[in-house]
Amino acid sequence: AVVSTQSTGYEAYLQDESGLNRRNIVDNRVHCCLYFISPYGRGLKPIDIKFMRSLHDKVNIVPVIAKADTLTKSEIRSLKARILEEIEEASIRIYQFPECDSDEDEDFVEMNKDLKESLPFAVIGSNTFIVKEGNRVIGRQYPWGVVEVENPEHSDFGKLRNMLIRTHMQDLKEVTRDVHYENFRSQKLSYSTNTSVSETTGPKIVDETDKIIREKDEELKRMQRMVEQLTKQQNMLAAMQKQ
Hints:
Elements: H1 2-17, E1 33-37, H2 46-55, E2 61-65, H3 73-89, H4 106-118, E3 121-122, E4 129-132, E5 135-142, E6 145-148, H5 157-167, H6 169-194, H7 208-242
Parallel strand pairs: 1-2, 2-3
Antiparallel strand pairs: 4-5, 5-6
Helix pairs in contact: 5-6
């Protein structure tokens, strides 16, 4: 269902891109997939590897360790290292943070480096407000203390949120456009070009996408001819009125 949702979004975008209403295209493509990994195992499960492999050429995958408050800091570090190692062994392509230019702002360079080193993000979730030292925080109350969702000492939630909403949203969109969507588009057009019946059965089967593109091109040409004719008529009328 997830793979089909992304493919449907690409298909719809390709159809709109090939049509007349290109300025008002509704972009339903998914630019990022947060893949949550269980904290209870010692790394990735076979289903994790299979699922990410089916998605990594279609969408930007950002791995996330769920329920990080069930692990100690040393356990989180070990699990992160293990997950990255298994991702590399399985040849899974996850989202790669862009390299910074030499003239980039130092604060951004440092933040980008910190985000890279935080993968996979270890987060906790809660919708409960707790009063801690006179301040209301979102977190979980345990007998030994409070775990805060937005405290960087407890969770990578703040880093993940900033990365998605503030600092790397545009890069995620550009990778979708330039890599994932372009691959889909190339494969689709290549398939439509190469699709044909056997030589004994007759002419080549025309792909629906090619047919739509040709029809739209013809319609554009007709409209251009009509505009040219109307322009000529208006010029003639203007010239006659001056006389």
